[in-house]
Amino acid sequence: MCSKVISPNSIIETYETLLSSAATILDEDAGNASWQPRADFYVYCILASLPWGGSELFEQVPDELERVLVGIQSYISIRRHFDDIAFSVFETDEGNSPNKKDFMEDLWERMQLLSRNGWKVKSVPKPHLSFEAQLVVGKSHRFHPVSYPPPAFTMSSSEILKGQEMHEANLKYPQRLCRLHIFPTNKAENMQPVDRFVVEEYILDVLLFFNGCRKECAFYLVSLPVSFRYEYLMAETIFSQLLLLPNPPFRPIYYTLVIIDLCKALPAAFPSVVVAAVHALFDRISNMDTECRTRLILWFSHHLSNFQFVWPWQEWANVKGLPKWAPQRVFVQEVLEREIRLSYFEKIKQSIEDAAELEGLLPPKAGPNFRYHTDESKESTEGHRLSKELVSMVRGRKTTRDIILWAEEQIVPANGAKFAVDVVSQTLLDIGSKSFTHLITVLERYGQIISKLCPDEEMQLLLMDEVSAYWKNSTQMTAIAIDRMMGYRLISNLAIVKWVFSPANVNQFHVSDRPWEILRNTVSKTYNRISDLRKEIQTLRKSIQVAKEASAKAIKELEEAKSILEIVEGQPVSSERPGRLRRLQGFADKAKEEEVTIEESLEAKQALLARGLEEGKELLRLLFKSFVDVLTERLPPVSADGDVPNLRTGDPNVTFPASDPEAATMEIDDENGADNNRFGLTLACWTRRFSLRVFTLSFGKPHSPVCADR
Per the database record, which ranges form the MIF4G domain (predicted)? Predict the structure, then answer.
């Protein structure tokens, strides 16, 4: 429109069509308010385009533009305020403030300010002004009339169905940006609100279109067509995407690589901004959503690994004096543990030599803890003898069947099944301890032995205890071993959930990511199995269609060949050569056989999918029941009046169960959280995080309270 290709009146007509559709969606009689995200998207399209053409519209069609703005004001006044605190990065009471503006309200306020300032925007280039004399004589065209799908009207009054519709609408029309205000106003760049919005749009567009090209992405991010600096805004926008709940738009590794490349592209400016962002987020870590904490830990450890692990750790040395469950202490502890995974123990220990106090937060030096290790100083036991015998059998290339018979005859009768699991699992883990590849090889070759010894959940729980004991000094290898065992169906996902919620692991919930990592892997693998089966079924359905067409074609060619007759001695005889008929018959039989084979594969995959869905439901039920049980033991009960105690404000009526004296006394000191959180509240935060994760994996992104409750 600015270049006179499209007429201003045509743009206004499009705006009014969008506004009319948005108003219809929210109409009480003809619309469906559950689809407000679609209406918001229509109005967002109008508002987002005004910085680019508002001044031209104001000059050429001022009355029509004013009419559109009045329509937007009317829409904003009737729409429902959207404030989903379940997806706030920082868990504060600010999310409940009635004065807090949502994204659409904030954007409308920025456009009103732009209108009062005469539609002047510094961040929007206007290359058409240089060619105005040539463009003004050109012919403008009209937009084709644009039609929009009518709102899906539902007669149901069920809150669950309404919640499902709103959930579907939010999946289809997600909010593009959830701003993350990291830096104080005196530190961030001073720019007009509209300029901030435009630069955010630039950054999001570049991240979107160059998501497979990190180098080009960083190049264009540092070359935006603006005349002012925007490093702080760029950092805030990228971190807002990285920490977006429930999932970032792209894989977190993408944002990690972009930040690394930006630090290299702007060595004098951006690294200091990243340092300031980390310090600002660290100061507020006690109020940060636990899912976001984990992402921040993974990003930060990876980022440091690309810069020689250099960081002013002495500034965080005081966290060693905080309680073991304090968020800042746990953050530093988990970052160091992840760094060791990316490097080695001595290297990370050397990197914190200026903060010797933090050495106490380093995990033990990774290595196996083999219970039956041969040592002259130790007395040889029955377990040592049996373990040594098993090693000899493995080295002697004995078959799996021979080893199973040996265990059933030599160990189980005399010492019991649990002792057999102890000896066999410890020994096989030790054989596969040299590397990840060794572990995989052992599980592939001798997994049937473990499967035979651990047929039920009770024995599988014992098996995971043995894995945890063997790799007690390596969180990574514990998670890998259990994950691989689940992959080979040696351990069920339900058994893993029960093991994670065992008393020993529950006590680690708020001080370590160890149980959460295993639980994350379990939920993700369960979902991935279902997702893979759905993809395979979709592919097989397409293959069946192709096979049916090929079979029909082959049969048709055969029948046509048979139908060609000639009269020989007064009798009709096929004129085709017998060899060609046999060949066509073979093609038809083979095509039909392939069709039947694919149909059988499809039936088998559908059966596996049905089984997988049932497993997913059982996992979901067990997971939430386990959370409820753990929380019930620790959180104060709701009063008879139905009032829920406010744990954040230090409610004097809050009393923790006497059976858990530690929970009643554990309070974060003032340096690490002014809210005086307690273990129950910390666990509740983790519960919410995993509720969202499991729900998202199962059903998508929950946006309404009804969906979240389901």
Answer: 2-108
